[in-house]
Design a protein that fits this description.
By secondary structure, the chain is α+β, with helices and mostly antiparallel strands. The chain has one domain (about 5-60): Ribosomal protein L30/L7 (Ribosomal Protein L30, Chain: A), CATH 3.30.1390. Helices cover about 30% and strands about 30% of the residues. The protein has two helices and three strands, in the order βαβαβ. The chain has helices at about 15-25, 40-50, and strands at about 5-10, 35-40, 55-60. It has a three-stranded antiparallel sheet with strand order 2-1-3, with no helix packed on it. Helix 1 packs across helix 2 (about 40-50). The N and C termini lie close together (about 10 Å).
């Protein structure tokens, strides 16, 4: 399965609790932090929820 690299590019300040929790679940706690995940349907759903706060790229 493909891997994706997720980077937090915007702050979670003044965001709903659900979006803050989604960022925490993805492992993002600070600005510009980078994490890698397998591209499973559950991870892609979380990425879609906070797509305005993160940038996503595919790892080769």
């Amino acid at each position: 399965m493909a891997k994706i690299r997720v980077t937090q590019v915007k702050s979670k300040i003044r965001r709903p609790k659900s979006q803050k929790a989604t960022l925490e679940a993805l492992g993002l706690r600070k600005m510009n932090q980078v994490v890698e995940h397998e591209a499973t349907p559950s991870i892609l759903g979380m990425v879609n929820t906070v797509k305005h706060l993160i940038s996503v790229e595919e790892v080769k």
